[in-house]
Amino acid sequence: MSVNAVVFSFARIYPDSMVASQRIALLVAKELNLPLLTDLNIGKDAPKRLDLLLIVNGAYGFCRCLPELAELIEKARRIVWIQNDYGIIPPKPESGAESPFRFAFRKRREMGKSHLDYWTTIMPNVKLTAFSNYINWNALTFRNGKPPENDRNDRLVYYGSWRHFGSSTKSRVKYFDRYFKQPSVPITVSSPFVKGRNKFALSYPKVCHVDKFSDLHENLTRYGAGLYLEDVASHSEFHSPPNRFYEMLSAGLPIIFQPECGSTLRQAGYDPTPYQAGTQLQLKRQFDDRKIMGKAQQLTWFEKARSDNASVVPALHAAMAKMEDMP
User: Fold this and answer.
1) Number of domains in the chain
2) Half-sphere exposure of 81 toward its Cβ, with a 13 Å CA cutoff?
3) pLDDT, tens digit, for every residue of 123-161?
4) In this structure, are 171 and 296 located in the same domain?
5) What CATH number does the domain containing 223 carry?
6) What is the sign, positive or negative, of the torsion defined by CA atoms of 106, 107, 112, 115?
7) Neighbour tally for 317: CB within 10 Å
8) What global pTM score does this model have?
9) Is residue 236 a part of any domain in this protein?
10) pLDDT tens per residue across span 31-73
11) What separation in angstroms does the CA of 120 have from each of 112, 135, 237, 292?
């Protein structure tokens, strides 16, 4: 059965973008040979008949074309939420919000249409519908080439946003406190937003704070080791390994892990147990052994990560083939 489908991205697409959702949108549109819609072309390129709407998760609060997207949501026979970030909450079929975007899902429910299927890195969401699939989108950030053998400095690096949500399972502040308040090794923190950098700097004056890396891969190849932290929610709910895991590994950066992250990474086929540090003393010991650690991780994990990367496109086509049999 031929499926009339389109891909929608909340953000405008830039070919060299480092934003994961943009890379995913480009890949899906290219591999499935589908139109890619954003606010720039949704008004003129949206089809009159729509069997399948593929929405790539993103910050929809900033989208410039929610009314036009709402029309597609109501029109589509089925909708797939392409998801690589559990922090971006999919819309609900019932909601008190009256934005065009959210209201369209309520109208779908009133019309008796299905809500969402998922092509996702988040295993619990795969089980929600018969047409949902696990796709390890995060593995797209892994680079297959041999990591460069740069001279590395004597600093541990952590990069990411300031993540503080009170007692929420999305918060990382208690882990930031553990590693950054009284560091036993030189640490650099790179944060993409000014507000976050200011909070890091005020809270942890004993570490070095820098802007977002303009070329992430190149910068990672210059540090001595990387620190891997995850949210509390990720300790027990299986997701794909995050982008930062594949980014650090493909840059040849030795990775030091918080002890809590072991369970879900082991489910993904990566056992970080030998490389964990839960105290400052352990952190220093691991950092001092970083060259040995880096070689061991490359030897043990590089080919597995390469396989993860190669699995994405076949999984995408398999998911699309399943949709061709949709009711």
Assistant:
1) 2
2) 24
3) 989 999 999 999 999 999 999 888 888 889 999 999 988
4) yes
5) 3.40.50.2000
6) negative
7) 12
8) 0.93
9) yes
10) 999 999 999 999 998 888 999 999 999 888 789 999 999 999 9
11) 24, 5, 13, 35
